[in-house]
Design brief:
This protein has 433 residues and is α/β, with parallel strands linked by helices. The protein folds into two domains: 60 residues, no CATH class; 292 residues, Rossmann fold, CATH 3.40.50. It contains 15 helices and 14 strands. The strands form three sheets. A nine-stranded mixed sheet has the order 1-2-8-10-9-11-12-13-14, with helices on both faces. Strand 13, helix 13 and strand 14 form a beta-alpha-beta unit.
Length: 433
């Protein structure tokens, strides 16, 4: 019908279509063509209706393609970097309350025939039982820890801090990289772990763990390598001391453990700290005589070797565990094994250290020392075990995945399960031969 208005509905807005006017309001072709080419925003505004999801997506693609303010520009992916807490930051103690067996439930009271009004009773204060205590993992600063160190490198008898820049001092590593003393060699803290099940009144062991290169105590030793957890789950009555070596650096320097008597001073100082954390000052004497198992991973071979050679506490060291760590110092390891036939020695290795491990095995066999190449059997005093791990095991994950999962846990479990080693841990060290 002439003069009738065409029908117009909301779907036309969604499609971006504008209804034409009546013929009596027609315009010229040129004006009509210009109206048809109006931007999409004009009909949307005219309709007063929000664009649908497809339009938003298409618009975002166009914006990003033209280098405008895209989603990625406005909301960049967060950047994370692992770092060690600064001196102004605190290390939150990692604690877990002991789960004790619940007390027997009291029988349910019989329902009263009718409501009974009772006098108020003062609430009873609930105290922890005498046997209840917390598992504790924390950092303790110790003067006898590896760093800071201002002495010489015993290999060449030159100052360890051999680089200077103004008042700043540093160490040039074998790779040629310079690490500054205030950033890399200035952390005197030690990761200390006392399991909830530890009993100073029973035969016990101190595990000294020397971490590898590129590590920090919280991020790597505790959270990634799970060393405290492995000790707790082993069932051995043991505590942990893990000194911070070079902080997050590709450097194996031994610091104060290079010095004669370095290990002894470290163990002597730790006794007071362990007793305080354990909660019984009288136990300091127990800790000061407790046997030691040294675990060295990767670059931790260097402080391990020097502790065995000049540490001054050889009579307390009852076991050595090397985790892909025989990169050198073979003479020091061979000498300790030969002279301490009541202790045990385990070296697990990958293809990276296979050549040196085999060389050390040959040295020991030439001395008439029996060497096993399997971890299947029990662990005995005098055991010397080398075990090669299968291909595919990475060096970085070696503390949690070697010949087995959680290898430190397995070694300590074997030690706990062997009566001879348990007695060895509680008795004075046998004379070296």
């Amino acid at each position: 019908m002439v003069g009738a208005q065409p029908k117009f509905d909301g779907d036309d807005c969604a499609r971006g279509v504008i209804a034409p006017s009546a013929p009596r309001f027609a315009r010229s072709r040129r004006i009509l063509a210009a109206a048809i080419l109006l931007p999409l925003a004009l009909p949307l505004a005219h309709c007063g209706k929000a664009p649908n999801a497809e339009m938003v997506a298409a618009n975002s693609q166009v914006t990003g393609a033209t280098g405008g303010d895209s989603f990625e520009d406005r909301f960049p992916a967060p950047q994370f970097s692992d770092r060690f807490p600064t001196e102004k930051e605190s290390f939150a103690p990692y604690q877990r309350t002991v789960a004790l067996a619940p007390a027997p439930a009291a029988p349910a009271p019989k329902a009263a025939a009718s409501p009974v009004r009772l006098a108020s009773i003062s609430p009873t204060l609930t105290l922890p039982r005498a046997t209840e205590r917390d598992e504790l993992t924390t950092l303790v600063s110790m003067k006898s820890s590896a760093f800071p160190y201002f002495g010489n490198n015993p290999r060449n008898d030159v100052p360890f801090l051999n680089v200077g820049k103004g008042e700043r001092r540093g160490h040039r590593s074998l790779s040629g990289r310079v690490y500054w003393q205030n950033e890399t060699y200035n952390d005197s803290r030690v990761l200390v772990h006392v399991p909830e099940s530890f009993d100073a009144g029973k035969p016990g062991v101190i595990v000294v763990f020397f971490h590898g290169n590129g590590a920090t105590l919280e991020r790597d030793v505790r959270d990634r390598q799970l060393v405290p957890q492995q000790i707790t789950e082993s069932g051995l009555n043991a505590v942990l001391l893990a000194p911070q070596m070079a902080v997050d650096a590709a450097d194996s320097s031994a610091g104060k453990f290079w010095q004669a008597g370095g290990l002894k001073r470290f163990l002597d100082e730790s006794a007071t700290h362990l007793a305080r954390l354990y909660g019984d000052p009288k136990s300091a004497q127990t800790f000061s005589n407790m046997p030691v198992v040294i675990v060295g991973y990767s670059g931790g071979f260097l402080p391990t070797a020097w502790s065995l050679a000049v540490g001054g506490a050889t009579d307390r060291v009852r076991g050595v565990v090397l985790l892909d760590a025989v990169y050198g110092e073979l003479d020091k390891f061979a000498s300790w094994i030969e002279k301490n036939r009541t202790g045990f020695f385990i070296s697990s290795y990958t293809r990276y250290t296979r050549q040196r491990d085999r060389e050390l095995m040959s040295m020991l066999r030439d001395k008439g020392i029996t060497v096993s190449e399997s971890m299947q059997g029990p662990l005995h005093p005098g055991s010397v075990v080398f075990v090669q791990t299968r291909d595919g095991i990475t060096h970085r994950s070696y503390v949690t995945q070697a010949w087995t999962e959680l290898p430190i846990k397995e070694v300590l479990t074997k030690m706990a399960a062997t009566p001879a080693l348990t007695r060895l841990a509680s008795a004075p060290a046998a004379a070296s031969r």
